[in-house]
Amino acid sequence: MKHPSITRTWKGIAVFSAAALAVTACGPDTGGGDAAEEGEETDWSEVEPADSIVFATNHPGGSEDLEDELIEQFTEETGIEVEVITSGANYEETSQWFQTGGGSNADVIVLSDATWFPNYLNGALAPVDELLEAADVDVSGYVEALYEDYLYEDNHYGVPYARSTPLFYYNVEHFEEAGVDAPPQTWDEVAEIAQTIVDEGVASYGYAFPPSNEYPAWGMANLVWGYGGGWSDEWDFSAVSSDETVEAIEFAQNGVQEGWANVAATSQTDDFASGVASMTIQSTGSLGGILEAADFEVGTAFLPDGPAAEGETPTGGAGLMIASASSPEEQLAAAMFAAHMTSAESQAIFSAGTGYVPSHQDADMSEVYQERPQFETAVDQLERARVQDYARVFLPGADLELAETLQSLLTSDADVREELERVQAEFEDLYESDLADELE
Amino acid sequence: MTTTASPPALGRRDSAEPSGAPDEHQLEIERRRARRRQRSKNWSLFLLFAGPNILLILAFIYYPLAMNVWYSTLDWRLGAPSADPVGLANYQRFFTSPSGLEVWRVTGIFTFGAVAGSMVLGLLIALVLNKKIPGRTFARTAVFSPYVLSGVGVALVWMFIFDPQRGALMHILNRFGIDSPQWFLDPDANLWMVIIVYVWKNLGYCAVVFLAGLQSIPRDLLEAATIDRAGPVRRFFSVVLPLLTPTVFFLLVTNIIFSMTNAFDILRVMTPTGNGTNTIIFEIYLQSFGQFNRAGYSAAIAVVLFLTLLIITAVQLRFVERKVHYQ
User: Fold this and answer.
1) Could B82 and A204 be called an inter-chain contact, meaning their C-beta atoms sit closer than 8 Å?
2) Where does B89-323 sit in CATH, by number?
3) Taking the model in full, what pTM does it have?
């Protein structure tokens, strides 16, 4: 006769084992397989584009109607149907949605400069170089730095779509009141003009730095590069605590302590548009909002030069990526679609309607310039566009670490070098714990 | 027409009556069959009524819970098709890393501030609203209404109030010659800012529950205390508060749980990067869906939160309830 407690034990083990099996059957593979294994090479000359594809987008810059218009043109030209899925309200939500499997049927996805890399690591993105060649796309038409943003290990993983860069904004009326007749060209001039504005009592602050929730590592990259520093040199993080970077951040810290600059409480856009600060750096995508909110004449200028470099502007915004899970036919159709959405004509329409800078060099923006002359500065500045440092866009959590550290440094008298050395150590830890195994 | 089967005769088996033995045996078999049929019928009824609910609970509560426990043992980036089993390393990291310890510090301050603030102020408001004052119904509605408002809406309005450059609070403080604190830039001020907003939103809930407790206190006890010349303070501490202990106990348990789990909307909107406000619930979000993408580590923190709440509730039930005075 079986002992009842033993029977119950075996039943318990059986139920637990069944539950454990059920649980592990639906999660990630823990058998040590390489998720990023290369698939078989495709002979694209043999592939016909699919009849329909799925486009996942957060409609950057409120572009839902514009996207519909461009999609309609594409379907008329190629006969390929495009199903649109709204994948989130912003770039972060879109990436979360794609990463957690919501976008398992998407062929083309809008992913930002800071969110595409984890999806690449997950093996979810297809390299586009051969695909674009198969779709007869001339990639030399793209603004070089905007296309090179998607280059990793000799392959591109996207095409530039809804792109932006930081732009220098100034209050023309404040400048006139303070007797300043031209926007600053260097960071030293920014400090000088800002001090004059404060001394003359024209505004509370001459310049507004971004708070931690406004991506300060993006907006302040120009300052750091201008001094010859950076957040990283590829995966070498010593640049973040170099003498040049320390000097650049000390310049900003001194500005706040001397009173010519502040760190905006919620957004530098609000401080600038409300007249609290006379100058700031914010995305080109914010131009429309600033012009609408400000009751004064808004001037725009190139980002200032530093002592070591001309005013380079970091790239930003989002691109179109193609899913690796799609069939070759769908990928080819997706490449044709991505090429259409980023063509010179499409980018002119998209840029005029959203405020993003055109990613194609041949986009005709003359009508927009007539309506908003400030936008011309944003487009001309693309000549100075520079691909962002790995630490900010590729290292998970590093942008947040930089954001909080920059805010802390600018609102205190903490030792900049000590803090940036701590950040470097933190970056090295993040790299070792979260990336090294996969990249080396 | 109904027919009723007569129950089988029950009696002791008599070994001296061998002819009756097969009948008894047959009866026993029949009884067993009847019991089995009844049991089977009961099970069918149980499954019919409770089955769908049990399936839903298993699918949407226990299955994700089990999955989460498993994920917590993996080094897994969000969405990655593969992961490395790491045992309890994620738990070890949370309990030993400076960032993990900071989460406990922030959670402790937030929970204490939110629970103490909501309960003390809620009780004071309930004591006022328990009096016969003009406009009492309107005041009760006004006090309770923030509790049912959207946390996102509440947070957005309070962001305007706290803005140190343009906010209403800045103007009020300036009238008294005081500069506005840098609510959004200083991590400590950030934490107190979200505690204030959470207390404001949660106050109505505590006030209404306290009010219900106050109204259930027998008036004759208060009258007897008054006759014995007990003043209002003495009446409160010697009569009202002891009789309110079931309400205090209930609010203590629910407020601790709510403050650890329900404050996410306010935290996310007012302090999107978690600068000094990364309580345990917010840290779960920041680690998985924020920039870090650490699904395994985040799952471990979620398990820790679950166990923490389980322990707090168990301790409260075991020790605090003993001191509760029920009428």
Assistant:
1) no
2) 1.10.3720.10
3) 0.85
